[in-house]
Design brief:
The protein has 6 helices and no strands. The chain is mostly helical. The longest helix has 26 residues.
Length: 129
């Protein structure tokens, strides 16, 4: 259980870091974020909405408990990043969006270890790290 817990928090921390790092410029409506949206053909008024949604998703995956909310938070964050990669792939060269594939991979690993952790807890294993 200790290994599962460590890997869960490592992947979850990384995923939260990446998603929070993309949420802050959106929330603050920074010119870089607005230009990025315009560059892929999205309207600028979506920038703060998606920023706040990502922030809420990050909070959702980090706050202990609330398993149903956590599931929704993972789903929303994965839709966001996969949608971003999809949109960027149509207007930018592969060298721009290919490294972005690392983020949903980390998110998938985080979710996978979340499920393993929940299963271990259901069988009565200790959560001590």
């Amino acid at each position: 259980m200790k290994t599962i817990n460590i890997l869960y928090w490592a992947f979850t921390g990384l995923f939260a870091f990446f998603m929070l790092g993309s949420a802050i410029p959106d929330i603050l409506i920074m010119p870089m974020a607005v230009e990025g949206f315009k560059g892929i053909g999205f309207p600028a008024h979506l920038v703060p909405f998606l920023g706040w949604a990502k922030l809420l998703g990050v909070i959702g995956i980090l706050v202990p408990g609330y398993p149903r909310s956590k599931e929704w938070a993972y789903a929303g964050l994965m839709y966001d990043i996969i949608g971003a990669i999809y949109a960027v792939a149509f207007v930018k060269p592969i060298s721009t969006w290919m490294p972005m594939l690392l983020i949903p991979a980390i998110g998938a690993a985080s979710y996978s270890y979340y499920v393993k952790r929940q299963q271990a807890l259901a069988t009565g294993a200790s959560v001590a790290a």
